[in-house]
């Protein structure tokens, strides 16, 4: 197919051109391309963006006796409707070996409708696991997530994080870090429960921003001592941005990701009667934190915006219709009487691009190039997917979004393909929306029409991680 008269937006420029797709790839970009025999689509007045790359999603993730409500098909279908054609999911370390955990995840993920890669959750560490880490790259996984929170469950000791950082560096892998202070969270949570506090806002009060700030600096200093790169996931607090900047200014190869919820919502949302909808870890914070995170994105301290998409139903006792079938999955109601039992996580994989176009570009904070860099090109570069993904270049996968920058949409759960019963942006007026989405040259979203298929997504193997940005 030949796309005529488009305005192409990449991470560094915006220009008028035609774009020719042949098979699964971009074949040619230029003025007045003549390609007899190819179907022509005139996209005058529309933008052509590289498909979004979401570096942080959790599909089919078991938590608190239930499971995140999008599986690899529904979650990737929702992603596509929002203009995202590549996602990076997390493998839970639920089996004795890393390899077994990856194999089980591969089976579950095979129904994905867009392309996908994986990070490994490294939530245990001993000599045998250490020996297995470098072999993950043979399985196409070159990034590991470690935690400084969730004591006795997911957390690693600082010394083990240091060892993992050194090993990862040797193997060409990147360590992602969830930065909170597990010990303080344990103490505050026990006190809050003993005092009879049950409401959602206590989730935030028991996970203070200072814990995230301190853990971010600790992570950067461990990376400095290991002489290894590090990527701080879901940054949420102003002080974290300051710590990341402090480390970067001193030559530490530290990078960061934030998510729309940390830019757009605050603890006040947790105080609403339906506050459980906003429960995620780390928690949403204050308007001052939102502002500092926006600034960190604009000034290059933070490199990516992912979603941490990990949806649960608000009321999983009441079925919704999804693809014509009734579905009910236990969700936030599990914690009606105890905030510690509310499954942690939010929907967002479909919302990310339209919401950020409206709030980032509509407000004048970002240029369209910055939007593409933060949501597509930078995650692709950091995680070793560039230039196959995140680029408009001859030879890149033809993952394209035909974007209508003027389209106004009243957004909410009715428009969303995320498999849950609520949307955080209910009733928001969005300007700028995907019109058509191509995955490797194939049209998979045409307005409200779904043309994608179960299992059409490819597993993207990554033998090494990518660049330091
Ligand atoms: O609340 C969240 N974010 N759940 C997903 C797990 C994580 O730590 O990213
Ligand atoms: Zn996390
Ligand atoms: Zn996450």
Name a few traits of the molecule.
single chain, 469 residues, Urease, subunit C, domain 1, TIM Barrel, nine-stranded mixed sheet, eight-stranded parallel sheet, 21 strands, globular, binds zinc ion
Topology of helices and strands:
Elements lengths: L1 E8 L4 E9 L2 E6 L9 E3 L4 E4 L1 E6 L4 E2 L2 E2 L4 H10 L2 E8 L6 H12 L5 E7 L5 H6 L10 E5 L10 H13 L3 E5 L3 H13 L6 H5 L3 H18 L3 E6 L2 H12 L4 E5 L1 H5 L2 H4 L16 H12 L5 E2 L14 E3 L2 E3 L24 H10 L6 H15 L17 E11 L18 E11 L2 E5 L2 E2 L19
The structure holds N-(aminocarbonyl)-beta-alanine and zinc ion (2 copies).
One zinc ion binds next to loops.
Q: How many helical stretches? A: 13
- Ranges with pLDDT <50 over ≥5 residues? none
CATH top level assignment of the largest domain: Alpha Beta
Q: Mind telling me the C-alpha Rg? A: 21 Å
Task: Indicate the CATH architecture of the largest domain.
Answer: Alpha-Beta Barrel
Based on DSSP secondary structure assignment, what is the total number of beta strands?
A: 21
Please identify the structural class as seen in this structure. Answer: alpha/beta
Name the helicity range: 25-40%
Proportion of residues in β-strands: 15-25%
CATH topology of the largest domain: TIM Barrel
The profile of the biggest β sheet is: 9 strands, mixed
């Amino acid at each position: 197919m030949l796309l005529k008269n488009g305005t192409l937006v990449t991470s560094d420029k915006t220009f008028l051109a035609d774009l020719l797709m042949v098979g699964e790839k971009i074949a040619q970009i230029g003025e007045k391309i003549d390609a007899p025999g190819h179907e022509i689509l005139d996209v005058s007045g529309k933008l052509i963006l590289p498909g979004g790359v979401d570096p942080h999603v959790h599909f089919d993730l078991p938590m608190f006796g239930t499971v995140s409500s999008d599986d690899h098909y529904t979650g990737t279908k929702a992603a596509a409707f929002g203009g995202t054609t590549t996602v990076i999911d997390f493998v839970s370390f639920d089996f004795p070996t890393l390899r077994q955990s990856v194999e089980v995840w591969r089976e579950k993920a095979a129904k994905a409708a867009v392309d996908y890669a994986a990070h490994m959750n490294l939530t245990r560490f001993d000599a045998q696991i250490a020996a297995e880490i470098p072999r993950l790259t043979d399985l196409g996984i070159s990034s590991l997530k470690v935690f400084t929170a969730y004591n006795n469950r997911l957390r690693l000791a600082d010394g083990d994080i240091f060892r993992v950082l050194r090993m990862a560096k040797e193997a060409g892998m990147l360590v992602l870090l969830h930065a909170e202070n597990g010990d303080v969270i344990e103490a505050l949570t026990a006190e809050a429960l003993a005092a009879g506090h049950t409401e959602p806002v206590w989730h935030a009060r028991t996970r203070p921003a200072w814990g995230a700030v301190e853990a971010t600096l600790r992570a950067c200093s461990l990376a400095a001592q290991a002489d290894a790169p590090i990527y701080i996931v879901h940054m949420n607090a102003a002080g974290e941005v300051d710590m990341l900047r402090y480390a970067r200014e001193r030559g530490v190869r530290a990078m960061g990701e934030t998510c729309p919820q940390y830019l757009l919502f605050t603890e006040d949302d947790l105080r609403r009667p339906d506050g459980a909808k906003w429960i995620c870890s780390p928690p949403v914070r204050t308007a001052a934190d939102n502002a500092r995170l926006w600034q960190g994105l604009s000034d290059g301290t933070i490199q990516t915006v992912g979603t941490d998409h990990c949806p649960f139903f608000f009321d999983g006792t009441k079925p919704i219709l999804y693809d014509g079938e009734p579905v009910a999955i236990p969700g936030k109601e599990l914690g009606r009487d105890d905030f510690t039992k509310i499954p942690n996580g939010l929907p967002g994989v479909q919302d990310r691009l339209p919401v950020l176009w409206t709030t980032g570009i509509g407000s004048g904070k970002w240029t369209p190039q910055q939007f593409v860099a933060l949501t597509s090109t930078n995650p692709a570069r950091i995680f070793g997917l560039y230039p196959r993904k995140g680029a408009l270049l001859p030879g890149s996968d033809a993952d394209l979004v035909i974007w209508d920058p003027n389209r106004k949409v009243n957004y909410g759960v009715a428009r969303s393909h995320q498999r849950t019963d609520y949307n955080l942006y209910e009733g928001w007026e969005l300007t700028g929306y995907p019109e058509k989405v191509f995955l490797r040259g194939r049209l998979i979203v045409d307005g409200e029409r779904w043309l994608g298929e179960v299992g059409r997504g490819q597993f993207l193997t990554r033998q090494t991680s990518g660049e330091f940005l």
